[in-house]
Amino acid sequence: MLNPTSPTAGFRQTLVQIESLTFGVEVADRLFGRLETGNFVVLHGSRTCHVLSELLCVRSQLPRHEGGLGSPVVFVDGGNRFDPYLISENARLHGMDPDEALRNVWVSSAFTNYQLTALVTEKLPEALSRVKPKLVVVSDAAALYCDSDIGLLEAKRTFNRVARFLWTLAKERNLLLVATSFQSANWRKRLLEQYLLGRADIAARVEEDTPRVRLTLERHPSKAAVSAELLFDEPRSQYLLEEFMEA
After folding, report:
1. Picking from 110-119, 169-178, 209-218, which range would have the lowest pLDDT averaged per residue?
2. Tell me, what's the pLDDT at 241?
3. Measured between alpha carbons, how far is 223 from 229 in angstroms, rounded to an integer?
4. Sign of dihedral through CA atoms 51, 52, 56, 59?
5. Domain that holds residue 172
6. 35-45: b (≥16 Cβ within 10 Å) or e
7. Does an H or E element contain 47, and which?
8. Is the pLDDT score of 5 beyond 60?
9. What pTM, to 2 d.p., does this model score?
10. For the chain, what is the domain count?
C-alpha cells in the first residue's frame, strides 16, 4: 500500500477517481454535501447514527447517477448493532430487492476489543481486496474498548492505532469510511471517541429528542459548522430516515 506521506502520494492522488455518495434526504444532503471517497466520516451521538449508516449501506449499491457508488459494502460491527430489517426496508423504499441488498453488505462482528483490533488491522484489508467495496462502515467503534479487561493506557494506545489505521485506509484505498460512536455515560468511551473525532475529515453530532433529530456538522473540509433539524411524523422505537421531514 502507498504511504500517504510518501513523495509519490500526491502524484498517485491525481490518478484516483473520486466518487461520492448521498443520503437521498434533502436536508441531510444540504448539510453534508456529497460524501466523497477518500474521506473518514465520524457520526456520533444518538442511535440515529446507526440509521444513517445503514441507509448509506443501501444507497452505496445504487448506480452513480442515482447518488450511489454502484458498490457493495463492508460493515464491521463493533457494537452488535447491525440490523438486517433496516437494510431490507430501506432497500424496498429504493425499489431494490431486499435479499440482494443484504447479500451486498458483508458483515463481520467482533465481541472483544482484541477481536475488533484484529478485524480492522488484519482482516479488513484482506476483505477490501476480495469484496472491492467503496464504502466501509465501522459501527460503534469505541464500545468494546470500554471493557474492564483492558487497562485505560492500553485502551487509549490501541484505539488510537485503530482510528489512525482507518483514516489511513480511507486515503490509501480511496474509500468512503464511516465510523459511528453512540453516546454513553461511560467516561472512558467519551475519552476514546476523541481519537475518532481527531482523525475525522467530516464529523457530525446526532442528537435525538423524539420526534426531532438534530444534526450538527462539526467538521468538514469545505463547509462551516452548522445544524439542521429533522422531524419524523410517527413516533416509534424504530424508523427509517426516508420518513424524516425537515422541521
Report:
1. 209-218
2. 47
3. 17
4. positive
5. 22-246
6. bbbbbbbbbbb
7. none
8. no
9. 0.87
10. 1
Least confident of 1-5, 106-110, 171-175, 194-198: 1-5
What is the four-CA torsion angle of 226, 231, 237, 242, rounded to 10 degrees? -90
CATH number for position 67: 3.40.50.300
Structure confidence at residue 15 as a pLDDT band (50, 70, 90): low
Integer CA distances (angstroms), 134 to 28, 71, 99, 119, 156, in order: 20, 6, 20, 18, 29
Whole-number Å distance between alpha carbons of 181 and 36: 20
Tell me if 6 is assigned to some domain.
no
What count of Cα atoms within 13 Å lies in the side-chain half-sphere of residue 204?
Answer: 31
Mean pLDDT for 202-216 is 90
Question: pLDDT by residue (tens digit) across 38-64?
Answer: 999 999 999 899 999 999 999 999 999
Q: Determine the pLDDT at residue 231.
A: 73
126 assigned to some structural domain: yes
Q: By three-state DSSP, how is residue 107 classified?
A: strand
| Torsion of the alpha carbons at 134, 162, 224 and 54, rounded to the nearest 10 | 50
- Give Cβ neighbours of residue 224 (< 8 Å, ≥ 6 apart): none
Quick check: is 9 in a domain?
Answer: no
Between CA 80 and CA 217 the distance in angstroms is 26
Grid coordinates of 196: 475518532
Q: Cα(first)–Cα(last) distance of the chain, in Å?
A: 45
Q: Cα Rg for the chain, rounded, in angstroms? A: 17
